[in-house]
Write a structure and sequence with these properties.
Blueprint lengths: L6 E5 L6 H15 L2 E9 L2 H11 L1 H20 L3 H20 L9 E9 L2 H11 L4 E7 L3 H6 L3 H8 L4 E6 L3
């Protein structure tokens, strides 16, 4: 028997294409009366980190890392202008979707916004899904070459291989 979906993990790479992927996650959340946990993973690259530390010093590296984390967080919570426009559009989407269904107890479908850091984006996504008791992972993949990307060394393929929960892939056209 299929269990109802209560927590959806939306994995974002912060590109503009994520708006249409998020719309799918939001639609699923509205129809299932589920919450969304937004996740952005910053990939650690030990080799380039070492080069930056050697060239510019430890303090510069720490400040750069903190700025990257804060920038990602600001995009996700809507503190930058482009993200604010996207969040306003999403808010309009929620209002329209909520009017078509019974009113929810939630003011927003977004339960949490997480910015993680790890050597493997796929591992961070799958471990966060487990830690946050998610019933579904929603992520995007370029439409052109979807099969080729799924068969190659791609984050989507790795998540599909490692995930213990269903993964909903939203193909998008773009960059």
């Amino acid at each position: 028997m299929v269990q109802p979906t209560k927590n959806i993990l939306f994995a974002s790479d912060l590109t503009v294409n994520m708006k249409q992927v998020f719309e799918h996650a939001a639609t699923l959340a509205v129809t299932q009366d589920a919450d969304i946990i937004v996740l952005h993973v910053m990939e650690e690259t030990p080799h380039s980190e070492k080069q930056i530390r050697m060239a510019f010093g430890e303090d510069f590296y720490k400040n750069l890392k903190a700025e990257h984390r804060e920038g990602a967080r600001n995009i996700l919570i809507g503190k930058n202008v482009d993200a604010l426009k996207i969040r306003q559009a999403i808010a309009g989407f929620f209002e329209g979707a909520r009017q078509n269904n019974e009113p929810s107890q939630h003011n927003s479908l977004i339960k949490k916004i997480l910015v993680a850091e790890g050597r493997s984006i796929a591992d961070e996504i799958t471990s966060t899904a487990t830690e946050e008791n998610c019933d579904l992972i929603v992520m995007g993949c370029k439409q052109q070459g979807l099969f080729a990307e799924a068969m190659g060394d791609h984050v989507v393929r790795k998540v599909l291989k490692r995930s213990q929960v269903p993964v909903f892939i939203v193909p998008f056209s773009g960059e």
